[in-house]
Specification:
The chain has helices at 27-43, 128-141, 159-165; strands spanning 47-49, 59-62, 73-82, 87-92, 100-107, 109-115, 121-127, 156-158. By secondary structure, it is of the alpha+beta class. The chain has one domain (12-165): Peptide deformylase (Peptide Deformylase). Strands 1-2-3-6-7 form a five-stranded antiparallel beta sheet. Strands 4-5-8 form a three-stranded antiparallel beta sheet. Strand 4 (87-92) and strand 5 (100-107) form a beta hairpin. The longest helix is centred in the N-terminal third of the chain and has 17 residues, at 27-43. It is globular, with a radius of gyration of 16 Å. The model has no long low-confidence stretch (mean pLDDT 92). The chain binds nickel (II) ion.
């Protein structure tokens, strides 16, 4: 296993559609996922998409809590479908956009389907933070970074400033 280098905003691999994985059980994909897990653990983020480690394949990993024993979920060729059109604003950050935070509208409820490393179909419904993380990571597979989803760029700011001034920042209302 190895820790991989993270592509940052401006690198072309973050701007294009990643390719479908033809065989989720291919050992090459297991190796990629193992390296992504090690990389995520080393850097300490919530999720990672393969294009962020310079691999243009439709693979993402994420975990939902910060506990050390959290088991990450692996999604291969994920497809998202919104449930309803309720959207919520929330803060996001991204390992490919270091040092910044922004307020991004996302669907509150989604359904997603993907393959796991054994080639089995995963099908889940997710809400709120879980739904947000999946939408953020899957956007990477389509060459989309979170600032492109924002509707008020005044709410794109350096992490240090956001923390410092957070009390004075009024989040926009939920959108619909
Ligand atoms: Ni990201």
């Amino acid at each position: 296993m190895s820790i991989l280098k993270i592509a940052r905003m401006g690198h072309p691999i973050l701007m294009r559609r990643a390719e479908d994985v033809t065989d989720p059980t291919d050992p090459e994909i297991s190796r990629l996922v193992a390296d992504m897990l090690e990389t995520l653990e080393d850097i300490g983020g919530r999720g990672l998409a393969a294009p962020q480690v310079h691999v243009a394949k439709r693979v993402v990993i994420f975990h939902l809590n910060d506990g050390r024993n959290a088991v990450p979920e692996v999604l291969i060729n994920p497809v998202i479908e919104p449930i309803g059109d309720d959207r919520v604003q929330g803060w996001e950050g991204c390992l490919s956009v270091p040092g910044l935070r922004g307020v991004v509208p996302r669907f509150r409820h989604i359904r997603y389907r993907a393959f796991d490393l054994d080639g089995r179909v995963i099908e889940r419904e997710a809400s709120d933070m879980h739904a947000r993380v999946v939408q953020h990571e899957c956007d990477h597979l389509d060459g989309v970074l979170y600032p492109q989803r924002m509707d008020d760029l005044r709410l794109l700011m350096f992490e240090t400033e956001a923390k410092h001034h957070l009390n004075g920042i009024v989040l926009p209302e939920d959108v619909d």
